[in-house]
Every structure is written in structure tokens, then in C-alpha cells.
Amino acid sequence: MRYQPDWSVITNNLDIFFKGMYLTLEISALSLLFAIPIGILFGVGRISKNPIIRFISSVYVEVMRGVPLLVILIWIHLVLGQFLKLGAFWGSIVSLAIFSGSFIAEIVRGGIQSVPKGQMEAARSSGMSNFQAMRLIILPQAFRKTLPPMASQFIILIKDSSLVSTISAVDLTLKATNLAAISYRYIEIWTFVALLYFAMTFTLSLIIRQFEKHWLKSEY
Amino acid sequence: MISINSVNKSFGNNQVLADINLEVEKSNVIALIGPSGAGKSTLIRVINALEEIDSGAIIVDGTSIHDKKTDINKARTNIGFVFQSFNLYPFLTALENVTIAPIKVKGMTKSEAEKMGTELLSSLGLADKIHVHPSHLSGGQQQRVAIARALAMDPQIMLFDEPTSALDPEMVKEVLDAIRKLAKEGMTMIVVTHEMGFAREICDKIVFMAEGKIVEVNSPEKFFTAPESERAKTFLSKVLNH
């Protein structure tokens, strides 16, 4: 007997899907909010003159890049959940932020290293401290160069956030899993979920492209 | 004003500065000339600590530059530096290039800084370029913005590292004119240059370097007509008779 799709499982439960989408966006946005400063801190740290800072930053980046996100999620959930009473929601955000932060750190490092050495020399010779020169002269230029890889990283973060359902954090994927379990309409539900993820990432991609066009063209 | 005492510096096995001693009086203009690889650029880069030294001391206006206790950021505000490749901030306008350090380092208000910056740029013939980004300026204009940026900190001395070497020939004059004007105003300056005519015309003293050493210090007149050292003679015969 041929499979008879029944899309009413979607139309009848739109509120569940949209709630899930909202949660996914909330988790992703909050994670990003923490991942960016973490990434900048460790990205700058990786090229610091201080060998201790450089070492700590390298260890962080290498470890986070080398361990699967799923393992980080479970580990944070077990350990921090145990000692800090961190719920699944915040456990997910911490995991995503430190995981994504390591990739952002590498992007930031690449961006900084692409700024010519003379920029730092000019800034320092006018009396700026290393920190001022970084903040006022180097990072603004580095960010323009990191925008495209950064955009990919944001998109990856939204997609990776689907893993948080494994530690029972409520997001689109978990909502869909639960709905499928009671309705048995797996194909319809996962097709629609795929569409929703694509809608979110593609919208983000369009926004960033506009932003990039506007920002990169208006300067220099 | 500048006192360089027994300064040594090596990059690996290569000694780029060998026992350098030099005194520069207030309002003096020194031309630093010599073959490439002589250590000229390194010498002016150690004066504002863009490079570290291995031994010796450099005193600028009473401040020991390489002393660990010296606030190097403060000391540098007293030393203007102009680079061969301009090193303007590409994402800022000419005026913003000039005002950012006075605002952020000296705590000048934005309006004060803009007034000062506009005057400086105008005095260098750039009144109509103040809101333009560096990429829309010619090399000569960019270097004049860079000079204005260095002057904006109101330094006691100015260091120029081959300021015209990256310029098209027809733009050399406008930059040399700007430096000439500073010399007339009594600025203390050290200029690394290959412009022999310019060095002869505006400088009080010629310092000739080769292989990391100061080989000859002489007045421009004597240096260009009757140099004392053999090394300077060979150098001059090569650069002047071609």
C-alpha cells in the first residue's frame, strides 16, 4: 500500500512549530551573544605577545574545535548541571557559545592578521596603547574582512542548535520529535521542520548579504 | 633634544646597529643617508621604540625611551613618525585620521580636534580633502595627511622614514615642501631620505650610515663637495653621477 501523506498534522499544529522556531531562534541568538565576545577575546589572545595568554587561548580553541558539539552538550549538562544547577536551556546556551566561540576566535585571528602591520605601528606611534590600537584601528578593519566567514558561522550555529534537543532543551527539533511520537506523521513533520530551518538560515543569509553590501560599499 | 648613546641592535646574527652615538640639538634637521641595509630605518624606528634595542640608551627630551619604567605611550606623543608607506587608516576620512589620536589619547574634545585638524590639513594644502577617504587620495596627498596626523599630537620632534620613496616623481615635491615648511618653523627632525638635493638644501647636518655604523657626520656643504670617508665617496659617486 502506498504511503498517504496527511498534512493536517502540520496545519493543525502550526502554533507548536512556531513556538519551536521561536525557541530555536532564542537559543541561537543568546548563544551568539556570548560566542562573539568569547571569540574576540580568544582570537586576540591567540596572537597576544604574552605566552601564557597565547597558550590558554590556543588550548581553548584546539579543544573546542576537536571535541564534537554533542559531547560538549552532554558533558556541560552533566557537570555544570550537577554543580551549578544549570538547567537544559542555559546548559545549551553555554555549550553552543563556547563551541561556536572557538570557531569565531579563529575567524577573528585571521581577520586581525590580515590587517597590515603598519596600521598597528601608526597607531602605536601616535601614543595609543596596544588595547586602544586594537579597539580603534585594527578590529574595525578586521571585522569587515571577517564578515563573510562570520555569516557562515552564524548559520552553522542555528543548525547546530538542533542538537540541544538531546539534553531535553526545548527547541524546534524537540517539539517536532514529540509531535511525531504521538502522531506517527514522521515524513510530514520532518519535511516541514527542514523547511523551517532553511527558512531561518536563508533569511539570515539574506539579511547579512544586505548588511555586507551596505557596509562594505559605504566605506573606503 | 635627542641623545643616542652606544646603541646596539641585532636581528639574529645580523648586527643592524653597531655602537651608534648621535646628538640632535633642538630645531636641528638631520638627514640620514646611506646605502640600503645600512640601518637608517632601524635607527629612527628605535627612537620611538617601534623596535627594541639590545643595549645602550636613547633620551628624547629628557625621557629615556627604552627604560622599562618609561610610559612609552606618553613618550610617543612627543615624537611624530611618518612612514614610507603612509599607513593611513583606510576606513577613516583624512580628518578622522588626524583627529582620532588627539581625541582618544590626549582627551581633546571632538570639536577642538576637528578645528585643529582642519587647520593642519588646510596648511598642508588639503582643505578640500578633509572628508575624503585615503583610497581616493593620491600618494602625495596621502603622505601629507600622514604628516598632519603626526603633527596633530603636537610633537617636539618628527621622524621621517623615506617619506618620498613610495611616491610617483611628480608628487615628491609637495611632500618635500611640507617638510621644508616644518624645518623653517624650527621643528627638530630626522629624515631618512634618498633625495640628495633636498638633504643638502634643508638639513643642518648629514649623518651617513653604512653596515650598521655611523661612518660620517658632516655639514651638507662639506659632505656633498668633500666627503671625509672613503665609504661616503663611493656612495656619492654612485648616487650623484648617474
TrEMBL record, chain A:
<keyword id="KW-0813">Transport</keyword>
<keyword id="KW-0472">Membrane</keyword>
<keyword id="KW-0029">Amino-acid transport</keyword>
<feature type="domain" description="ABC transmembrane type-1">
    <location>
        <begin position="21"/>
        <end position="208"/>
    </location>
</feature>
<dbReference type="InterPro" id="IPR000515">
    <property type="entry name" value="MetI-like"/>
</dbReference>
<dbReference type="InterPro" id="IPR010065">
    <property type="entry name" value="AA_ABC_transptr_permease_3TM"/>
</dbReference>
<keyword id="KW-1133">Transmembrane helix</keyword>
<feature type="transmembrane region" description="Helical">
    <location>
        <begin position="186"/>
        <end position="208"/>
    </location>
</feature>
<keyword id="KW-1003">Cell membrane</keyword>
<dbReference type="GO" id="GO:0043190">
    <property type="term" value="C:ATP-binding cassette (ABC) transporter complex"/>
</dbReference>
<dbReference type="Pfam" id="PF00528">
    <property type="entry name" value="BPD_transp_1"/>
</dbReference>
<protein>
    <submittedName>
        <fullName>Nickel transporter</fullName>
    </submittedName>
</protein>
<feature type="transmembrane region" description="Helical">
    <location>
        <begin position="89"/>
        <end position="108"/>
    </location>
</feature>
<dbReference type="InterPro" id="IPR035906">
    <property type="entry name" value="MetI-like_sf"/>
</dbReference>
<comment type="similarity">
    <text>Belongs to the binding-protein-dependent transport system permease family. HisMQ subfamily.</text>
</comment>
<dbReference type="GO" id="GO:0022857">
    <property type="term" value="F:transmembrane transporter activity"/>
</dbReference>
<keyword id="KW-0812">Transmembrane</keyword>
<feature type="transmembrane region" description="Helical">
    <location>
        <begin position="20"/>
        <end position="42"/>
    </location>
</feature>
<dbReference type="InterPro" id="IPR043429">
    <property type="entry name" value="ArtM/GltK/GlnP/TcyL/YhdX-like"/>
</dbReference>
<dbReference type="GO" id="GO:0006865">
    <property type="term" value="P:amino acid transport"/>
</dbReference>
<feature type="transmembrane region" description="Helical">
    <location>
        <begin position="63"/>
        <end position="83"/>
    </location>
</feature>
TrEMBL record, chain B:
<dbReference type="InterPro" id="IPR003439">
    <property type="entry name" value="ABC_transporter-like_ATP-bd"/>
</dbReference>
<dbReference type="InterPro" id="IPR027417">
    <property type="entry name" value="P-loop_NTPase"/>
</dbReference>
<feature type="domain" description="ABC transporter">
    <location>
        <begin position="2"/>
        <end position="236"/>
    </location>
</feature>
<keyword id="KW-1003">Cell membrane</keyword>
<comment type="similarity">
    <text>Belongs to the ABC transporter superfamily.</text>
</comment>
<dbReference type="GO" id="GO:0005886">
    <property type="term" value="C:plasma membrane"/>
</dbReference>
<keyword id="KW-0472">Membrane</keyword>
<dbReference type="InterPro" id="IPR017871">
    <property type="entry name" value="ABC_transporter-like_CS"/>
</dbReference>
<keyword id="KW-0067">ATP-binding</keyword>
<keyword id="KW-0547">Nucleotide-binding</keyword>
<protein>
    <submittedName>
        <fullName>Amino acid ABC transporter ATPase</fullName>
    </submittedName>
</protein>
<dbReference type="GO" id="GO:0016887">
    <property type="term" value="F:ATP hydrolysis activity"/>
</dbReference>
<dbReference type="GO" id="GO:0015424">
    <property type="term" value="F:ABC-type amino acid transporter activity"/>
</dbReference>
<keyword id="KW-0029">Amino-acid transport</keyword>
<dbReference type="InterPro" id="IPR003593">
    <property type="entry name" value="AAA+_ATPase"/>
</dbReference>
<dbReference type="InterPro" id="IPR030679">
    <property type="entry name" value="ABC_ATPase_HisP-typ"/>
</dbReference>
<dbReference type="Pfam" id="PF00005">
    <property type="entry name" value="ABC_tran"/>
</dbReference>
<dbReference type="GO" id="GO:0005524">
    <property type="term" value="F:ATP binding"/>
</dbReference>
<dbReference type="InterPro" id="IPR050086">
    <property type="entry name" value="MetN_ABC_transporter-like"/>
</dbReference>
<keyword id="KW-0813">Transport</keyword>
